[in-house]
Specification:
297 residues; mainly alpha; three-stranded antiparallel β-sheet; two-stranded antiparallel ribbon; 7 helices; 39% helix; C3H1-type domain-containing protein
Length: 297
């Protein structure tokens, strides 16, 4: 009988304890929200003051209106763990009228969609001017083509295909060859700067330069070095021959018997003419023979 009589009292105490704990937790949550709201207001005031100092042309009313226009989520506005960022002033970026190297070589850039030009990257992003996929040059199927992970170009053209080193040396027997066979390019041609940078050339087949990205093949480097040595050797031989011919045209001859020096010169008629030079000897024995234009020290 005592247990049955005490049961309602115990239940009432439990209910009262639960209600008091719930009220205390609610009061604590209200205090936390008030503290967060107070800190937000302080941060907004500090941000407005800092923006006013950096932008003196904006008035206080415009700053408050700009801050109040920041969208907030009603479901998370009272949550103590979520903070809504403030609106920032946009940074003006001047567009650059050139292709983006990162986009052309990889097919994508951070925070950019295909074919878009935003304030993050001012260069042009054209999906039609992407570089060729390495799998196409190797003659194997691209693993990322089916899953759209590979965004590079899988269609062949002279604008994106590298130059064939074997064709430039005259020994390409691959049919068909995945590399470009340019008729105006040889092993001594310079590298195409645009192709080596982005893997794409606007001129294409009419370009007279080597299309290659990265390090030049060792075969081409060896051929260029050999050609350079041969050209230097030929130039040296020609210079020696010309110097030899010039020495034949004008050669000094000494005559000890007469004490004079004659210089033979070739006149226009094809005959040699002797030109004497006056020699002045000293009166004292042992002095050297001097010319008239000698200046003593």
């Amino acid at each position: 009988m005592e247990d049955s009589a005490l049961t309602p009292v115990v239940v009432a105490r439990i209910v009262l304890g639960a209600q008091s704990r719930a009220a205390a937790e609610k009061a604590r949550a209200d205090q936390d929200r008030e503290e967060i709201r107070r800190r937000k207001n302080q941060f907004r005031a500090h941000s407005a003051k800092k923006r006013q100092s950096s932008r003196p042309d904006l008035e206080e009313g415009e700053i408050e209106e700009e801050e109040s226009s920041t969208p907030t989520n009603s479901s998370t506005s009272n949550s103590p763990a979520v903070f809504t960022p403030f609106k920032r002033l946009p940074t003006p970026v001047t567009p650059i009228n050139e292709l983006c190297p990162t986009f052309c070589t990889t097919g994508t850039t951070y925070h950019l969609k295909l074919g878009s030009r935003t304030s993050i990257c001012p260069r042009i992003h054209n999906p039609k001017k992407l570089s060729i996929c390495p799998a196409v040059l190797q003659g194997v199927p691209c693993a990322g083509l089916a899953s759209t992970r590979c965004r590079l170009n899988h269609s062949w053209s002279f604008h994106i295909a590298p130059s064939c080193a074997n064709y430039m040396m005259g020994c390409c027997y691959a049919m068909p060859c995945p590399y470009a066979h340019h008729d105006f390019v040889h092993t001594f041609s310079p590298l195409c700067e645009q192709f080596s940078k982005i893997g794409y050339c606007e001129i294409g087949h009419a370009c007279h330069k080597i299309h290659w990205r990265g390090k030049v093949p060792e075969v081409l480097e060896m051929m260029k070095q050999k050609a350079k040595e041969d050209s230097l050797g030929r130039k040296l031989e020609v210079a020696k021959a010309r110097a030899k011919e010039s020495m034949k045209l004008k050669m000094p001859v000494r005559t000890l018997s007469m004490g004079e020096t004659t210089t033979r010169e070739l006149v226009s008629g094809g005959e040699w003419k002797a030109k004497p030079e006056v020699i002045v000897r000293g009166e004292t024995t042992g002095e050297l023979a001097l010319q008239e234009d000698f200046v003593p020290f």
